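protein under study:
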Amino acid sequence: MAALAPLPPLPPQFKSIQHHLRTAQEHDKRDPVVAYYCRLYAMQTGMKIDSKTPECRKFLSKLMDQLEALKKQLGDNEAITQEIVGCAHLENYALKMFLYADNEDRAGRFHKNMIKSFYTASLLIDVITVFGELTDENVKHRKYARWKATYIHNCLKNGETPQAGPVGIEEDNDVEDNEDAGAASLPTQPPQPSSSSTYDPSNMPSGNYTGIQIPPGAHAPANTPAEVPHSTGVTSNTIQPAPQTIPAIDPTLFSTVSQGDIRLTPEDFARAQKYCKYAGSALQYEDVSTAIQNLQKALKLLTTGRE
């Protein structure tokens, strides 16, 4: 992908979007779709903050140039041309990053890479708002991920051992103001994992972070802070998905037909289509359990009008 023209210095008014822009830069080569939507979120947010001050107008104009260049380069990508595909792509990517960090956390493996994963997942859930309001699950994941990034970072910084897994969210923690939490001094390239979710923190090189290797098929334990309805992510040819438990299929769904008085709204059709997209994405990673769950949700929605 062709290099984008650099942006001018970030105006102080736009401090709240600096990490979203940094995430965009980190993904320019790794996942241009993620990079595009991070910039789109920054653009929309910046316009709401200040679109009149000269320095802000100049910055937003250059950011718009980057967006147009990216859109031209990705013109044949469905995740750019179709919002529902783009939303599914971004949600799947954010969830995969969250699941990696959550698995590391619950296993008691605390390191900068997992802090970065938690924090970046929370930023990407911010970005999902370019498609509309967040689901309750996404709101819970964002809150939990941002809190966990701050909590674990502060523990490691103070020489304390973090408590693994959900331990109660401290509402006052604000990772936005903590530059080190998931944002600085992270490894240039994470080491190749030897299992589906294991990194050796002692082998991590120093330097600036540019990417996270997220194994396909990684699943959060049953007591994840919110339901995780789908699971896809960055491909890796060297890691096999973990063994799966196939969910029981509701036999009534095979014989259910849409009732005559059921009237589906455009939003219902969009949600059903999204569930089917999630199922298709899950099958790319041989995640049969997630595919079945999402197909069942789509079928139930289409036949009953309810989720």
